Amino acid sequence: MPSLILLMIGGAFAYAFWNSSRAAAERAIELGRNACRAADVQWLDQAVHASSIRVCRKENGWLGWERTYRFEYSHDGIDRHTGRMVLRGDQLVAFVGPSAARISEIRRSVDTSGAEDV
What we know:
The chain is an alpha+beta fold.
């Protein structure tokens, strides 16, 4: 009987870890998609890949998991770049990837015929 209780407790911990891992991966997918959309780049493979996990201390003092995810994006569909994000729980603490698109003012082309614009 005691071994069944220990097995149930172990199963509950395993389920809780799996559930928090899935929630963090879904959050990372959302963040990666939004970053690529904001930077006007193509998000490749439509997925993130967990690259590391470690124990950390959260802001409230409790221990938690810090998960690192990587993803790939492309500027023109030919090149391939790797981005990285670090989540503590569901909070983004570090991001390396496409920067937000910047729109610059379009200048009028210079008329070389000698005529002036009025």
